[in-house]
TrEMBL record:
Coiled coil: none
Catalytic activity: lipid IVA (E. coli) + CMP-3-deoxy-beta-D-manno-octulosonate = alpha-Kdo-(2->6)-lipid IVA (E. coli) + CMP + H(+)
Domain annotation 3-deoxy-D-manno-octulosonic-acid transferase N-terminal: ranges: 34-206
Protein name: 3-deoxy-D-manno-octulosonic acid transferase
Entry keyword set: Cell membrane, Glycosyltransferase, Lipopolysaccharide biosynthesis, Membrane, Transferase
Amino acid sequence: MMLGLYAAATRLAAPALRSMLRSRAARGKEVPSRLREREGFTALPRPAGRLIWVHAASVGETMSVLPVLRALAAHGPVLLTTGTVTSAKLAEERLPPGVRHQFVPLDVPAWVKRFLDHWRPDAAVFVESEIWPNLLRGCDARGIKRVLLNGRISARSTANWRHVPDLARRLLGGFAAIHAQSAADAANFRALGASRVLEWGNLKFFAAPLPADAEALATLRAQIPGPVWLAASTHLGEEDLIATAHAALVANYPDLVTIIAPRHPERGAEVAELCANAPRRSLGQMPRPGHVYLADTLGELGLFFRLAPFAFIGNSLLGFGGHNIIEPALLARLVLAGPHLENFTEAAHRLTEAAALVRVKDATGLADAVRTWLAAPEAAYEAGQRAAACFADAALLPARLTGLILDNAA
């Protein structure tokens, strides 16, 4: 009943969704030349033979699933769908041969049908929390086995799903397998009726260390002779706090460079204005001692993690669950974060146990933490080594997950 109502509502919403897509394209939130992909159209032919379809919502999910995509591509063609402009740019740069990229259609029945009729995948893999009823029903109607990879579901979402238990059982119970990020996620999935739930560890623990251009790294290091620290994946509201922390720190460290890498690089001009017109990487400008520097480019976070001895990870000060604290850890960097790391509870636990994660509550606490670790470079280095060691046990996970997917594509 509820699925039928949802399908009818999304069918009626199609004209409004089409207008929304055009509006998003005008604001740079969609790729105008590829807008029809969001309605299930494609200019790409379906490759011959078995095809595995993997859907990852955005950049973070795409990064985490790259090792699995590489392993799958060794066995045949793979289709990756994503839903954001930044993830499409990442796909252009990082996808291995044999993996095609297309934007995922919005969850309108006719658009989903067009997409599935063209691609006819032999297995569908959804990453983390991508639960789109029409897409899932379309797979079920065609006998396409579906797998949820690195699945996560919060306690709040679980409570909401409990209000519609039949719907939860139908959508979640329809997965041939759910690989959960953590024991807590696994328990939540089982409570909602999922049948085969696997606890093999978090795929993000294995993600390859972010790359960096050696020449660019050397050039930037030459421009930063003094102390430096990084605030990565920041959001609106956090940059103000980081700028306040920087202002407090330059009294002790007049040559300090605070690097801010906003989660959405297109916000570079806005963030630069907040930070006294800070120089911007996207404009080819170089850092200046004593000032904030804007790392407002895509795909260079590995460069900036290597520049700084430790990194604050954003989306964690203002209550939004945090971003990937594993990325700096894999590069042997001490991690700083706010109180909200709900999206990375297991990783946070590991890092805390290793004394490689420092939690702060506000701009004052952030400034105090940065001051402490700038004054103790050897201790920061040792904490970074402990951070890297926290995730040394996940090397076999991509191969194991690849086997799971291929078993369900037979």
